[in-house]
Amino acid sequence: MPELKTLELDKDGHLANLDDWSPELAQDLSTQEGVGQLNDRHWMVINYIRDQFMEKGDAPSIRKLTKQSGVSTKELYQLFPKGPAKKAAKIAGLPKPKGCI
Amino acid sequence: MKTQETQTLERPEEKAPEPIEKVSIIISKGSLEGVYPGLIMANGARMEGIEATLFFTFFGLEAVIDKRMDNLKVATVGNPAMHIPTMIGGLPGMSSFATKKMQGEMEKLDIPPVREFIEMIHDTGAEIYVCKATVDMFHLEEEDFCEQVDGVITVGEFYEKSAGAEIIFT
Questions:
Q1: Distance from CA of A13 to the nearest CA of B (A)
Q2: Cβ within 8 Å, pair A85-B47
Q3: Residues of chain B with pLDDT under 70
Q4: What is the DSSP string of B125-146?
Q5: Which domain CATH number covers B131?
Q6: Which residue is closest to B6 within chain A, CA to CA?
Q7: Number of domains in chain B
Q8: Are strands B127-131 and B22-27 parallel, antiparallel or unpaired?
Q9: For tag attachment on chain A, is the N or C end more exposed, with fewer CB atoms within 10 Å?
Q10: Does residue B4 lie in a domain region?
Q11: Does residue A98 surpass a pLDDT of 60?
């Protein structure tokens, strides 16, 4: 697996190339972001936003995410403290979400 | 609506400006277009990991009064940016019509209705307060508010709670 610090990043510090991402790398990113050990609930969010991104080209809004992924707003903020939209996208190997909501 | 993030992995020596850590947002207007900017700013702050406190004052209280919050309307009179002549904007039904239109546009952007938005913002950990002076002036009781309201506080208490925060008046 490539070392995290050797990978190319975009201007926001997210992975520049989608193909560089792997589940193992997600754990490294999570540790780096202070989110810690990823559990099943984190993975529900990560998998959901990755699916949405592949389909629509942007990460879903938090409203959509909480309505469709089965993870509530409260839980989402517990899982990804300090900015769930950005942190989850970063760990999922996606660019920073474009939406405001 | 996002703060610029300049932090990167390879260049830790580059000093970024201090990020905003806390905001206190005052909502003082009771029209739909008067309430939403503050709600969007508060939710956006939480999405960025910024602490947020909402303070509703004067007609802004409409957005957290249980019986009223589902019926906020767009003001169609006295708003040149609406591009509706005042006399036409004052016709019966204009405000409801403009409100429906705006709600439709917002739904497309995934902006929730006021009640759902207040619940969502509260669930993010933001605190929601109402202004005591206004509550007294309008003869309101704590029971009149939706359950997300964390308390009725004085202006002094608002400033105490805003210690270290950027205050945004809307």
A1: 5
A2: yes
A3: 1-13
A4: T-EEEEEHHHHHHTT--GGGB-
A5: 3.40.1260.10
A6: A12
A7: 1
A8: unpaired
A9: N
A10: no
A11: yes
Q: How many CA atoms lie within 13 A of B144 on its CB side?
A: 14
Check A100 against B5: CB less than 8 A apart.
no
Q: Which two tokens stand for residue A73?
A: 């707003």
Task: Check B47 against A82: CB less than 8 A apart.
Answer: no
Is B158 within a domain?
Answer: yes
- Nearest residue, CB atoms, B110 vs list A61, A73, A83: A61
**Extended beta strands in chain B, E state:** 22-27, 51-56, 127-131, 151-153, 166-169
Nearest-neighbour CA in chain A from B85: distance (Å)? 31
Say if the Cβ atoms of A5 and B7 lie within 8 Å.
no
> Per the domain annotation, does B56 fall within a domain?
yes
Q: Report helix, strand or coil for A96.
A: coil
Average pLDDT of chain A? 88
Domain that holds residue B39: 22-72+112-169
DSSP-derived pairing of the beta strands B151-153 and B166-169: unpaired
| Residue A42: Cβ-neighbour burial (10 angstroms; 0-12, 13-18, 19+) | buried
Query: What integer pLDDT is reported at residue A19 of this predicted model?
Result: 87
Please state the separation of Cα B3 from the chain's center in Å. 18
How is chain A split into domains, by residue range? Answer: 7-91
CA dist A59 and A49 (Å) reads 6
pTM of the model: 0.86
By residue count, chain A amounts to 101
Angle at B39 between CA B121 and CA B162, to 5 degrees: 80
Provide CATH code, domain A7-91.
1.10.10
Instruction: Tell me, yes or no, whether B46 lies in a domain.
Output: yes
Of the two residues B55 and A8, the one the predictor is more confident about is B55
